[in-house]
Design goal:
11 strands; single chain; elongated; 6 helices; 29% helix; 208 residues; three-stranded antiparallel β-sheet; alpha+beta; four-stranded mixed β-sheet
């Protein structure tokens, strides 16, 4: 759901006990003569990202579709591991399923202990069509999802793949925030703002 920066600034001021009748400039050793609203505005995208990174995938769905071509580096198409390039603005992979899989993949990263299991020579240890695994990996060309694994042959394709993009403020001064996360975003914006200002209220002390 899209929210205007004007509303976010208003709600953050309320959370910080700073209404618009307060002095317009904050003079501290930390932020100098910066308008309160400008400080809040500068924290919004970071705060949304921090909140989104903590949320369960179910709270972020539906995401944006991934439209990319699968690569099959281990052999013939539809056999073994597939590589799915992720969009440049991908923050979270929400779901991915190939047409020969019985369910969506369990999503891990290359830093998870499970990742090394995907490269063992023993059948049934790594991901397979009955319990597929998608491992998010960093490559020189960008982020990819290594998909383990397929047996369906040349007809295997992407049945579904969705991601959550990196949050950013658009030209109309709005930003997308998951519908159930708005209050958490306001708290995070307030905390980041208070840290910059060297300013604390009972509300911000409660979330530090």
């Amino acid at each position: 759901m899209r929210h205007s920066l004007k509303k976010i600034i208003h709600d953050t001021r309320i959370f910080l006990d700073l209404n618009h009748d307060a002095p317009p400039l904050v003079e501290t050793a930390h932020c100098g003569n910066l308008a309160i609203d400008d400080i809040i505005r500068s924290k919004v995208a970071t705060a949304v990202r921090q909140v989104v990174e903590r949320l369960d995938n179910l709270l972020l769905a539906p995401g944006k579709p991934i439209r990319a071509t699968l690569a099959w580096p281990e052999g013939a198409p539809g056999r073994g591991m597939a590589v799915l390039p992720l969009p440049d603005d991908c923050l979270r992979l929400l779901t991915v399923r190939l047409t020969d899989w019985r369910r969506p993949a369990h999503i891990i990263t290359e830093n998870d202990p499970e990742y090394r299991w995907q490269h063992t020579p023993w059948p049934g240890v790594g991901g397979n069509p009955s319990r597929p695994v998608a491992a998010i990996c960093q490559r020189p060309t960008g982020m990819v999802a290594e998909l383990y694994s397929s047996t369906g042959g040349s007809d295997v394709a992407i049945a579904a793949a969705q991601y959550y993009p990196v949050p950013h403020v658009t030209h109309d001064d709005t930003i997308d925030i998951p519908s159930l996360a708005y209050d958490d975003v306001i708290k995070q914006v307030a905390l980041l703002t208070a840290e910059t200002m060297g300013y604390a209220t009972e509300n911000t002390k409660a979330i530090i």
